[in-house]
Amino acid sequence: MEKAVDFTKQINTYFTTMEEALHKVDRGELSGAMNALLRAYERGAEIYCFGNGGSAATASHMLNDFNKGVSYELEKKFRFHCLNDNVAILTALANDVGYEYIYVKQLEGKLRAGDLVVAISGSGNSPNVLRAAEYAGAQGCEVVGITGYDGGGLRRLADHHMHVPSWNMQIVEDIHLIFNHMMMKTFCELLKSKEGERQ
User: Fold this and answer.
1) Which of 7, 101, 106, 138 is the most buried (most CB within 10 A)?
2) DSSP structure string for 148-199
3) Contacts of 161 (CB under 8 A, 6+ apart)
4) Rounded Cα–Cα distance for residues 41 and 195 (Å)
5) Domains within the chain, CATH numbers bracketed
6) Where are the alpha helices (DSSP H) in 25-118?
7) Mean pLDDT, to the nearest integer, of 156-174?
8) How does pLDDT run across 96-147, given as a tens digit for each residue?
9) Is the pTM of this model over 0.85?
């Protein structure tokens, strides 16, 4: 039997890299983005989230955590929609129109002024995400950009930012999920308390 490999050094390196990136995250920007989500919730707006690859998984996870995790015990619910969850519409649009249009075409004719878009791109430069974010802005909708690296084009297009200043995609995606869980816990406590006060 082969001797077990000691991965402690690699584990420590990865965790240290994540801790360093977390310390650089702008807490004020996070608070601003969370307030945009809170305002959307309070006005009953539709919230559309989407991304590619790991960011698509984060968008899907966010839908679950807000529509079930936060909303489950609330009388008033979040109204999240994840545009990357339906394989049929994604492949139809990608095949017939082009992959860069898979999100904007889902928003056309559906997005209303006052709705909120949560666009997720680790690099900030995914063409399909940028097209959708640009369209949302043109419709009078606020955009929350969840990014890594230097934020790319999405950082310029978004009204609110949840940015991880790291060039390591795995660390970026890890922290995006931390953002999601942090928001879930925060909104759970806040909104349950608010509903309790009204009763």
Assistant:
1) 106
2) -TT-HHHHHH-SEEEE---S-HHHHHHHHHHHHHHHHHHHHHHHHHHHHHH-
3) 26, 29, 32, 33, 144, 145, 146, 147, 151, 155
4) 13
5) 27-198 (3.40.50.10490)
6) 27-42, 54-64, 87-96, 104-107
7) 98
8) 999 999 999 999 989 999 999 999 999 999 999 999 999 999 999 999 999 9
9) yes
